[in-house]
Amino acid sequence: MEFSAKQIAAFIQGEIIGDENATVHTFAKIEEGMPGAISFLSNPKYTPYIYETQSSIVLVNKDFTPEHEIKTTLIKVDNAYESLAKLLNLYEMSKPKKQGIDSLAFVAPSAKIGENVYIGAFAYIGENAVIGDNTQIYPHTFVGDGVKIGNNCLLYSNVNVYHDCRIGNECILHSGAVIGADGFGFAPTSDGYDKIPQIGIVILEDKVDIGANTCVDRATMGATIIHSGVKIDNLVQIAHNDEVGSHTVMAAQVGIAGSTKIGEWCMFGGQVGIAGHSKIGDKVSLGAQSGVPGDIKSGSQLIGTPPMDPKQYFKASVVQRSLPDMQKELRNLRKEIEELKQLLNK
Fold first, then answer.
1. Which of the listed residues 25, 60, 94 is the one where a domain comes to its end?
2. Which of 57, 77, 94 lies at the terminal end of a domain, its last residue?
3. Which residues of the chain fall below pLDDT 50?
4. Are residues 147 and 230 both part of a single domain?
5. Residues near 291 by Cβ (< 8 Å), separated by ≥ 6?
6. CATH number of the domain to which 28 belongs
7. Domain total for the chain?
8. What values do phi and psi take at 30, rounded to 5?
9. Sequence-separated (6 or more) residues with CB below 8 Å from residue 213
């Protein structure tokens, strides 16, 4: 399927600089551009490539001013990255979707299946499960008894959704995701640890993305809740009774301990760890590998363990590299002071 620069500019409300009849049929990174492809320039580090790219069309921000001649057609927009996302979504929506229930899938007689649903080979749909319209469930995925999944969802292969959990509309669960495994609840005794039954559920609201091999544990009682618009990367652990506010994003290997409340619009870098029973406010930004032992107020931007202001953190990092030399100097100073004391005493 081909689109012209004129059609693309109309869709993303951009300004064409060059040939409005230039056409594209695929996407490419600006450094790997080819004729018939559309690329984008958002990060200034990639600016040199725009003068040599072979892509037919390049999306750029409105404030971009070329310093040399450019052969490609430009489309200027408010935000090139956001505009690219819109085009990629349009491209993805244009792809034909699978439909129908494979003869090798198991669907319980009491399950309710919506219209235009796809259920792949060896997928399992449990008793009284509900699958919404246009939802796609790929092979080897397990949907337990009483699970409710909304419309337009996508569950890739080997996803496991335990009994009674709830998934909203337009959610995407990548391979290996586990929704509703038991929370880590054990009571210590003289003989070891007695398991505490986890009788709650997990609720994913609308437009939640769950990365590959990410786990969201069911609550001990009540629900572990992931609110609408949350995006979670691969290999993330969300423990029992946690609540994650709308539009929060988490990079890979984040770990949230139990009964923690995360606010809206937060951003967590990779390997952030948050202690249990903490309360994290809205619009909190945590740098990669931050270790959080307790509550954080809304609007904070922190990094490190314990978390601190980024400027203070990087200053401390510089000092830390000097600690061996500082220790040597301190020992020498102590030695000199002792020698001075001895001289004075004489």
1. 94
2. 94
3. none
4. yes
5. 272, 273, 304, 305, 306, 307
6. 3.40.1390.10
7. 3
8. -60, -35
9. 175, 176, 177, 234, 235
8 Å CB contact between 119 and 137: yes
The reply to whether 163 and 130 lie within a common domain is yes
Instruction: Please measure the distance between the N-terminal and C-terminal CA atoms of the chain and give it in whole angstroms.
Output: 96
- In three-state secondary structure terms, 218 is coil
Inter-axis angle of helices 80-94 and 5-12, nearest 10: 110
Let me know whether 298 and 316 are in one domain.
Answer: no
Query: Residue 184: is it exposed, middle or buried by C-beta count within 10 angstroms (0-12/13-18/19+)?
Result: middle
For the chain, what's the residue count?
A: 346
Active site residue 240: yes
Range of the domain at 42: 3-94
Rg (the chain; Cα; Å): 27
Q: Are 239 and 216 in contact, with CB atoms under 8 Å apart?
A: no
> Catalytic residue among 68, 163, 240, 277, which?
240
Backbone angles phi, psi at 106, to 5 degrees: -110, 125
Give the distance between the most distant pair of CA atoms in the chain.
100
Q: What is the pLDDT of residue 318?
A: 82
Identify whether residues 289 and 156 lie together within a single domain: yes
Q: Residue 100: what residue type?
A: G
pTM: 0.86
Whether residue 46 sits in one domain with residue 177: no
Q: Are residues 298 and 328 part of one domain?
A: no
What local confidence, expressed as pLDDT, does residue 96 receive? 83
CA distance linking residue 311 with residue 271, whole number of Å: 20
Report yes or no: 257 and 236 within 8 Å, Cβ to Cβ. no
Nearest to 226 by CA among 212, 215, 242, 237: 242
Query: What pLDDT is attached to residue 1?
Result: 76
Looking at the structure, tell me whether residues 293 and 150 fall in a common domain.
Answer: yes
Amino acid making up residue 119: I
Q: Specify the residue for token string 């399992």.
A: 124
Query: Which regions of 227-337 does DSSP assign to beta strands (E)?
Result: 231-232, 237-238, 243-244, 249-250, 255-256, 261-262, 267-268, 273-274, 279-280, 285-286, 291-292, 301-302
